[in-house]
Specification:
The protein is of the alpha/beta class. The protein has 3 domains: 128 residues, Rossmann fold (3-Layer(aba) Sandwich); 54 residues, Adenine nucleotide alpha hydrolases-like domains (SH3 type barrels), CATH 2.30.30; 78 residues, Translation factors (Elongation Factor Tu (Ef-tu), domain 3, Beta Barrel), CATH 2.40.30. The strands form 4 sheets. It has a 6-stranded antiparallel β-barrel with strand order 12-15-14-13-16-17. Strand 10 and strand 11 form a beta hairpin. The protein starts with a strand and ends with a strand. It is globular. The protein has 7 helices and 17 strands.
Length: 341
């Protein structure tokens, strides 16, 4: 009797090839698609088309209310506070993988699978989350808030495959999604106009002053939701040299600028800690830390201080943004992390 596995299906090439590969390997495959906002109606339609092509049953879950409360509200509030949110990182444990695990239990499935480019290893009774084999496609940073409950029942069939090979498999399988573009960064804002989305829901954000590296007003910004720490382009001011956003102060509605080297930090404080397995992050450990999804991992030492971490880098890092995640690695293994404050 074949084993049952549930695939998170979006209708895109990654998740569709994931389901197709599992069918080729003899799994009894089911699919689930999650409608998290009005922008996901096309995702549901695409998943239904893919499930029909694949010949698998599809479960449709409406999670709009939970997603709005846990993710969209957080996203808008963080920008209003001058912080840089990452909604995918919040959504994964609170919405997507929670619903996926619930559906696994309800449907009598052994495992769940997704099209993420990350690895899993079994060791000493634990399931370890690891980097994907292709550094350019690695998505382990986005999954660091998953724990053993989720990781122990997950399978990532695409972990070792380059994207061009995934597309070629889709062509071989005759899947209509083979040439479909990759999904945009933010699934509930299709045009990626974050500021416009927030203002449409919360009202206009007032303009305020830019403060130069010398400490004097040097122009007006359009409203703090339009900017993020570390940003250099599209500031709309000319000081005769490149400057970066050093700090966003929502209380005074001012944005403070700095020359490039002045945005580098030797230490950061990280809160709301999550570990991929119990005791993963130990006081005094030498680790590698990513402070944004596309950043290289930087050598550091981590110190546990109550409910937060103090991370000291071997080489100061440019513009760690409050609200973004600092994710800790040892070698290829993801230990966990938290939010930069």
């Amino acid at each position: 009797m074949s084993q049952k596995i549930l695939v998170a299906l979006s209708g895109g090439v990654d998740s569709s090839v994931c389901a197709w590969l599992l069918k080729q390997q003899g799994w009894e495959v089911g699919g689930i698609v999650m409608k998290m906002s009005p922008a996901h109606e096309q995702t549901v339609a695409d998943a239904q088309a893919a499930a029909e092509q694949l010949g698998i049953p599809l479960l449709v879950r409406d999670l709009e209310e939970d997603f709005s409360r846990e993710v969209i509200s957080y996203f808008m509030e963080e920008y209003a506070r001058g912080r840089t949110p990452n909604p995918c990182i919040v959504c994964n444990p609170k919405i997507k993988f929670r619903a996926l695990m619930e559906a696994v239990e309800e449907g009598g499935y052994e495992l769940a699978a997704t099209g993420h480019y990350a690895g899993l290893q079994k060791k000493d009774g634990l399931t370890l989350l690891t980097r994907g084999e292709n550094p350019e496609r690695d998505q382990s940073y986005m999954l660091y808030r998953l724990g053993q409950k989720e990781l122990s029942r997950l399978f990532f069939p695409l972990a070792a495959l380059p994207k061009d090979q995934v597309r070629e498999l889709a062509r071989q399988a005759g899947l209509s999604c083979a040439e479909k573009p990759d999904s945009q960064e933010n699934c509930f804002i299709p045009d990626n106009d974050y500021a416009g989305y927030i203002e449409a829901h919360r009202g206009a954000c007032p303009p305020g002053e830019f403060i130069s590296p010398e400490g004097v007003p040097c122009g007006m910004h359009q409203g703090i939701i339009h900017y993020t720490v570390g940003q250099r382009k599209r500031l709309g001011i000319a000081l005769g040299r490149p400057v970066f956003i050093r700090e966003i102060d929502p209380d005074t509605n001012r944005i403070y600028l700095a020359d490039g080297t002045d945005t580098c930090k030797e230490e950061i404080i990280v809160t709301d800690i999550s570990e991929t397995f119990p005791g993963a992050i130990r006081d005094g450990d030498e680790v590698q830390v990513k402070i944004r999804s596309r950043a290289s991992a930087a050598p550091a030492v981590v110190f546990r201080e109550g409910n937060q971490l103090r991370i000291r880098f071997a080489v100061p890092q440019r513009a760690p943004a409050p609200g973004q995640s600092a994710v800790l690695y040892q070698g290829d293994i993801v230990l966990g992390g938290g939010f930069i404050c």
